[in-house]
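#struct-pred

JT: dropping the chains for the assembly here, can someone run the whole complex?
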Amino acid sequence: MLLPEKMCKIEIISLKENREKIMQRLYSLGLLHLEEVVVEGKAIAINEEERQIIDMDNKTESFFYNLEKLIKVKEPKRHSSISKKEISRGYSLINKFSEMFRDIEVISEDIVRLKDNVEIIDLLLKLNINDLKHVKTIDKHTVVIGYANKENSRKLKDLLRKLKDRGLIEGYVREDKDRDYFLIVSLKNKDVDIGELVSYLDVHHDIHELYNRFKDIETNVYNLYNLLSTEIETLHRKYNSLIDRIKKEFESNKNLLWNLRYYLRDRTKQIEGYSFLKEKDYVFIVRGYVPCKNKEKVVNSVKKIDKYALIRVQEAEPHEAPVKLKYPKFLRGVHFLLEAYGLPAYRYIDPSLFMLITFPLFYGFILGDFGYGLVLFLLSFILMRTKSNAFKLLGQVFLYASLSTIFFGLLFGEFFGFEELFGYKLPALMHRMEKINELIIISLLFGIVHVNLGLVLGIVQDFIYRQYLHALTHRMSWILLQIGVGLIGYGMYISSSFISYFGGVLFLLSVGMLYYAERLQAIFELPSIFTNILSYARLGAVGLSSIAIAYVINVFAEMFFEKHVLWAYFVGGLIFLIGHTFNIVLGIISPFLHSLRLHYVEHFTKFYKSGGVKFTPYGKTE
Amino acid sequence: MVEEVGMKALAASLALGLSAIASGIAEARIGASAVAAMAEDEKFFGKGLLMTVIPETLVIFGFVIALLILFVV
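RK: done, full complex below.
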């Protein structure tokens, strides 16, 4: 659980004709994390059948995407395999659906265009233009029609007047109650900034498209309006009938289409894996990583297809292999926090087990309130019942944190910030507001343990790689430095020069080791270990601020309650409710961030090596 | 005596308040950059959060100093 699973590097060389069979087998095994083969050779060229699969997969995905916009599509829980005959029927169905959706798209565009035209006609009628011939010289002009609100209309009219006086533009205006309608005409070769004029209009249209379509028809604008409305109705009918057909056909072929979707997804993923391979002369090469415990399975599977295949297996080097972490379900939430920082590098320590203890411990110590703990407990269950995976994992973290908060709440004797309930002081091992110094000292003790746990984990890591000197100079030296300074201080406190001198020797020894390891940089960084520990004072400090806020809310609310008037009870209750909701929100976010920070900055920097690549086996979807 | 208590309270509040302002300024700048980085790639969340909370240590030191002024000095 402390180290990622051991990986083996595997390289398979086999004849080209076995490529599909071997890759299919590896895909169904789902044990190999593919790595791109970087040798001289050709990339794999996919054949016609494979190209068709990718093409059909795109079409099928786009069909389901469009379908989901029309109806609620429920994914079946199970899916079965699909025969060749069914695949070919599925292909023709998907092609048919693609054409139908293409038709729907064309119809939708037509409807939008016609509705635009209807709006233009409406505007023409508002301007009392009943015949398109009134704008017959349109080819040579820019003609814009639209309306503006009264304020913009005034500005536009001023501008139009100026341009009209200079002979640059013609403008027709009809004033109405709430808005004014405009028709702006300008010669195309005249230098007029139509954009500025249009910016004053709330709605505007270019009428060229409408004019070009109907200029040769002998009809008035009223008739055009009716003509277009009928056309829109016909298109709507066509649109609805197409949608009905799609829904009906999908319902009657639902199972086949889902099975086809899964089949195509699978096959496409398999084909995508070919991009990692290389071909050379008569052979192809595939390379990747497999958990060492499964290496025999992979080798035997390939040998069954080609007993002459060349297979080379060796233990993966640190840093290069993908990371597959082994952790039980109860660690998933904590692991989520770890992944937010970065996966551990291959064969480096995974500290999630320690985080399972320290994260809720710090969280609970900061919040430390029985009432807030209960709220958090409820919240964690709500989060765990949501559909989002991230929320579920966060819910698990909050569950542990809430238990710790309840525990410390009992220890500190706090309930929604109250240390007293109905005149009785809540029993407590330690009331935080009364023992501020002790609280900070306990926080610093947590710091000493946590920072040194990081250094010890670093030593363990160095021992795994047999880097004994590194363990001594980069980790042990920091521990010695703390002991040395501690002994100097203690010796001075009890006036024992022997202890002080001994501490001094340890201090000098550690400084020497650090100088050997990191030269001058280490000397400048000497105080960092103490600032790291001091940083844990936040465990007490943030908790105190939470109590102070709760205390202020309670005092404020009590001021109203003491008036013994109905409205005062109401205001007091409101202050109590809003105030504590605010404090709970702060109480949830703040300890979360501070605990996380103590892990990321003070603890992880002592040993943790991130940058691992997640193990994603070919064929398995997680 | 009253003056001494007042001066202590003033000193403690300055230690805490000024360090809080400094933390705020630093966090605002780092936070803005961290959000921009996260908008481009969500993987920066962990590192972004880490960078953002680093200056918070300032206010913790301020708090410790304030406590020392109030209860030890």
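JT: nice. Chain B touches chain A at residues 43, 45-47, 49-50, 53-54, 56-57, 60-61, 63-64, 67, 71 (CB under 8 Å). Chain B has one domain: 12-72.
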